[in-house]
Amino acid sequence: MAFNGVSINERPRLLINNKNTSRNKYPGNSGGRDLRLDFLRGLIMLVVIVVHMEYYSFFSMFVWERIGLISSAEGFVGLSGIVLGIVYKNRLLRDGFKSSAIKLWKRSFQLYRINVFIVLSIALLGLLPFINVFEVTHWIPNTQRSRAFLLYPADGTPWVEIFKQAFLLKIGPHQFQVIGLYVGLIATAPFVLYFLHRKKTIWLMVISFIIYGINQKYQFRITGARFEWGFPTLTWQLIFINGMVVGYHQEKILGYITERKNKILVIIASCFSLAFLFLALNNPNAVYWPLRDLAGLDGELFRQIYLNWFQKPTLGLGRIFNNITLFIVFYYALTHYWFPINKALGWLVIPLGQASLYVFIVHIYFILLFSNTPLGSYDSFILNTAIHATAITLIWLMVKHKVLFQLIPR
Predict the structure, then answer these.
(1) End-to-end Cα, the chain, rounded Å
(2) Residues 6+ apart with CB under 8 A from 2
(3) Under DSSP, is residue 324 helix (H, G, I), strand (E, B) or coil?
(4) Strand partners for 150
(5) CB-hemisphere CA count at 13 Å for 329?
(6) Cα–Cα distances in Å, from 188 out to 5, 97, 102, 208, 237?
(7) Residue at 289 is within a domain
(8) Is residue 296 part of a domain?
(9) pTM > 0.85
(10) How many C-beta neighbours within 10 Å does residue 333 have?
């Protein structure tokens, strides 16, 4: 079972036909899953591991909004919507709407149970005097530990209250909060699927954008859960729902991106991506980036641009556009240069992408593991690089050898 509600053994149709004249091009095979999407999800999981283990290393230099003003969260939510749209279109045609809706709601409830388990397991571990849970019970803005914000009830809070807040998802590690958002998104997916099946795609997109626009002004947090502060559901539904639209209409949309005759779209997307890269490298408050003196923009100008167009919780339009352009560039590159790219990194990232939920769960406990050793240091670049490399390697090995796959959902 994959992270986005899609079984690892599902076989959604692929886009590229068998008229493949390039040895490097992604092979068309209507009987297999789209490994390009697995590849991209695997890259995102690498970013998740590095960003959430907040150490200054070679890896962290390139993932904290360095290739653009984007984060792993947007890519994860958008790609999950795409894959879910691909798979559930086929499932809907095969099993009908009722069966598909029930499976989605079951998946949503499974993700909810996992959320509650993670929240309570951290609370219980915090009772042990020899385990320090600070890294997963606090949010530390820009690595400034003096400004850490407590995400769990204070010591002495009755357990009845802790359980209540856990079941309402009002507490929990910030590193896992996007899964809380995903619980709600998966729960609403049957309604999105209904619109798509009834050929009401335009209406669906219009409604999604209207809700997004309204929430830009009023900032409703409809569930009251903790994740709403970082990922307001009415805002973040935009990239999930439109991701489902892309997946459901994969032949038209993703097929259009990958056609060489439409290369002008990729060229334009590449130019915008380079512009976003330049903007990101001008961030005067960049975390883990040693070359800030090379910035070519005034710091105040950057801050105004960022606040107006690129904020993460409000999902600024600039951030959305940055994600779209990078997706176009990456997906086109993976299509036409698949074999060299896959040979270089596919062995590492594809398994992680196919077991995304598993990776998300176990990486929380890896954060705990390393934070309870004297190894991590904000000043030791080499040691921290080794920590990140070790964590990635161990999680990859766990996936490859299916460690606890019977117990941990994938």
Answers:
(1) 5
(2) 8, 10, 83, 354, 355, 356, 357, 410
(3) helix
(4) 138
(5) 16
(6) 13, 14, 11, 12, 9
(7) yes
(8) yes
(9) yes
(10) 14
Distance (Å, whole) CA 257 – CA 246: 11
Between strands 149-150 and 138-139, the pairing is antiparallel
Alpha helix positions (H), 249-297 = 250-258, 263-280
Joined together, the tokens standing for residue 289 give: 């980036």
Look at the chain and report how many structural domains it folds into: 1
CB 76 within 8 Å of CB 40: no
Q: What is the DSSP letter of 346?
A: I
Cα angle: 319, vertex 321, 326; to 5 degrees:
95
Gap between the Cα atoms of 238 and 313, Å rounded: 13
Phi, psi of 149 (to 5 degrees): -115, 125
Q: Which residues pair with 139 in a beta bridge?
A: 149
Calpha distance 175→213 (Å, rounded): 27
* Helix (H), strand (E) at residue 138: strand 138-139
> What secondary structure letter does DSSP report for 13?
P
> Is 285 within a domain?
yes
For 123, 174, 335, the CA distances from 157, given in Å and listed in that order, are 11, 20, 54
Residue 284 falls inside a structural domain: yes
Q: Which residues span the domain enclosing 317?
A: 258-336
Residue position matching structure tokens 């729902």: 241
pLDDT in tens for each of the 410 residues of the chain? 454 555 434 444 444 444 444 688 998 754 568 999 999 999 999 999 999 999 999 999 999 999 999 999 999 999 999 999 999 999 998 999 999 999 999 999 999 999 999 999 999 999 999 999 999 999 988 767 778 899 999 999 999 999 999 999 999 999 999 999 999 999 999 999 999 999 999 999 999 999 999 999 999 999 999 999 999 999 999 999 999 999 999 999 999 999 989 999 999 999 999 999 999 999 988 888 887 666 678 889 999 999 999 999 999 999 999 999 999 999 999 999 999 999 999 999 999 999 999 999 999 999 999 999 887 666 789 999 999 999 999 999 999 999 999 989 88
Give CA–CA dist 323/319, Å, rounded. Answer: 6
Q: DSSP strand E in 56-146: where?
A: 138-139
